[in-house]
Amino acid sequence: MSKERVYKAFIVGLQEALFETHGEMALALNRIAGRAMMKYIKDEELLEITGDTANSLAHDVKKTIESLGDIGDVLAEEKKNTVELRIVECPFSDVKRELLKRDKVPVVCPFASLVLKATEETFGVRMRTASIDIDEEECRFVMERLE
Q1: Structural domain tally of the chain?
Q2: To 10 degrees, the CA torsion angle through 61, 67, 73, 75?
Q3: For residues 131 and 43, what is the distance between their CA atoms, to the nearest angstrom?
Q4: CA distance 25 to 2
Q5: Backbone phi, then psi, for 40, in 5-degree steps?
Q6: Of 18, 26, 124, 129, which has the fewest Cβ atoms less than 10 A away?
Q7: What is the DSSP string of the chain?
Q8: What does each C-alpha distance from 99 to 17, 92, 130, 134 come to in angstroms?
Q9: pLDDT in tens for each of the 147 residues of the chain?
Q10: Sign, CA torsion 18/21/23/25
Q11: Distance, CA of 91 to CA of 86 (rounded, Å)
């Protein structure tokens, strides 16, 4: 079994266990794990903000995720009070697909904290995650300005 399949199997098992043992609280636990992952990304200096536009945000998030694994595309669109960012073929997609096959809802994309932090740093304003939509092919984030 390849290293990637071992990682996938472990993450699928972990997500299932969280879902079965904690129900809705699994969301909170995943968010805490996302913050820990964001700390790792910062400590390893993997996030570099290169501009202040939706295009630079997409580029910076893609570059950071690429440093952690394979990824398809990252697309961002700035609107009046929101920023929408989509991660196509997210490295977490295989795990999401497996959980959906097992009727387990993936509770959160592990990149939620990264997306929020990068968006705040890119646009220089506090943001909140207004919504996260996860399907088999992509993760879609909508961040809303707080200021």
Answers
A1: 1
A2: 0
A3: 27
A4: 32
A5: -60, -45
A6: 124
A7: --HHHHHHHHHHHHHHHHHHHHTTHHHHHHHHHHHHHHHHHHHTT------SSHHHHHHHHHHHHHTTS---EEEEEE-SSEEEEEEET-TTHHHHHHHHHTT------TTHHHHHHHHHHHHTS-EEEEEEEE-SSEEEEEEEE--
A8: 11, 11, 24, 12
A9: 677 777 778 877 888 888 788 877 777 787 788 888 888 888 989 999 999 999 999 999 999 988 877 778 899 999 999 999 998 887 777 777 777 777 776 656 778 888 889 999 999 999 999 988 877 678 889 999 997
A10: negative
A11: 13
CATH of the domain at 106: 3.30.1380.20
Integer-rounded Cα radius of gyration of the chain:
15
Q: Residue 72's domain spans which residues?
A: 3-145
